[in-house]
Amino acid sequence: MQIYLDYSATTPTRPEAIAAMQEVMTAQWGNPSSLHVWGQRAATIVERARVQVARLINAPPESIVFTSGGTEADNLAISGVVRQYNHPQHIIVSSVEHSAIAEPVHWLEQLGWQVTRLPVNRQGRVNPLDLQAALQPNTVLVSIIYGQSEVGTLQPIQTLGTIARNHGALFHTDAVQVAGRLLLDMQQLPVDLLSLSSHKLYGPQGAGALYIRPGVKIAPLLGGGGQESKLRSGTQAVPILAGFGVAAELAAQEMMFETPRLIRLRDRLFALLSETPGLVPTGDRIHRLPHHVSFCVQYADDEVLNGKALVRQMNLAGIGISAGSACHSGKVTPSPILQAMGFSDRVAKSGIRLTLGRDTTEEDIDWTAMVLKQVLERLALKPALSKV
Question: Which residues are catalytic?
Answer without folding.
Answer: 327
